[in-house]
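Intended use. Records like the one below are meant for learning the mapping from a protein sequence to its folded structure. Do not use them to infer anything beyond what is encoded.
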Amino acid sequence: MIKRTRTEINKCIIHKVGNKYNSGQNAFSESLVRFDEESYELLLPFLLKPFGAVTQSYRFSHHADVRLNEINKYAADIFEDDSNEVFIEHSKNIVNHLYEQSNSANIKTGDVIVAYFEGIEYKDVLTEAVGVFKIESKVDFFQTYLDDDSFDVVVQKGISTKRLDKGCLILNSTDAEGTVVLSVDNNQYDAQYWIKNFLSVKYADDRNLHTQNYLEMCKEFSEEILKPELGKQEQSNFLANTVDYFKEHESVDYHGFKDEIFEEDKHKDMFEDYKQHFEKLNDVLIRNNFEVSDVVLKKEKSKFKTEIKLDTNIQIKIDVDAPDASAEYLEQGYDEDKKMKFYKVYYNTEK
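Structure written out for the chain above:
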C-alpha cells in the first residue's frame, strides 16, 4: 500500500501507556528521541515494513462530526503546525486518548511510539504521515557483561524487531471520504480496542471493501449452506468457481455471477436468501456491481477451506485455483462390501 524508499523520520517520541482498568498510570517523555545511525536504521523499517502489505485503508468516523474525532484532530494539527512543541503536546494527547480506551483487564500496557514521517509514497505521491505504534510484547534475550576478569550473562527484556504489535499511519492525504488511515494489529485480543475505540475508523467504501465483503459472504455461504446441504466436494467446487470468476472478470455483476456459478434455480434462490441474511447479520451492503480488487482476492482466497477431511485420517486438498479439478478428477461412491463411502482420484504422476 505504501513505499518507504524515500521515507525519513522527522520527529519521534516514546511514551508509556498504562491501563485505566487496573489503575495504571501513563509515563511521558518531554524530549524527542535522538537517534544514532544504528538505531535509526533499525527502527525505520520496523515501524513501516508491515504497511507495505496492507491492502485496505480506513477513514475516520464520528457520530456527530468527523472533525471531532480525537486522532483525526491531533494529526491534522500536527500537519498544520509541525513544530516540536505541537508534536510533543499532541503525542501526549494521543497516549491519553489511548489510555481512556483501556476498559478491560485484557488491554495491555506498553510503549507508545509517535513519529512524524516525510517522504512516504502513497498512490505514486509523496506525502507526510503521523504514525502511532504500540509495543505490547517484550522478548527475553541474553546480555553478556564483564565482571572482574570473567564474562557473565544476564537475562533482559527488549523489543523484538520481527513483529509490530499495533500501529497506524495517518497520511496527509485525503479523498472524498476523508483522511487516509492505514492500520495493523497483530495482537487482536480485543477487536474493538484499536480500530473502533482508539482510532474510530471504518473501511473506505472502495473496490477493496466490496471485494472483501462479497468473498466473505461466499465463504460463509459455502460453510453454512452448501456444505450441510450438498457436501464438502460441492462446497470446494463452489469456492474454486468463485475464485475463477473473480480472476476472469474485472468487475462483478451479481446476477451474472449467479447465472454462471449455479445451474439450478433453487441454488440461485438459496444464494439470494443468504445474501439478504448476510447483509442483515453483518450490517453491510453487498454491491450488485463493483470492480474487483486483485490484492484483496489474493488475500481472501487463502482463507477458503477446500480440504475434505475423512474419518479414516485421510485428507484431500483441492486447489482453489483449479475450478475444474474436482469435477473432472474426483469421484464419490459407496462400496457395498465395506459399507463405506469412497473417493476415487484420477492422476497421471505424483508431485
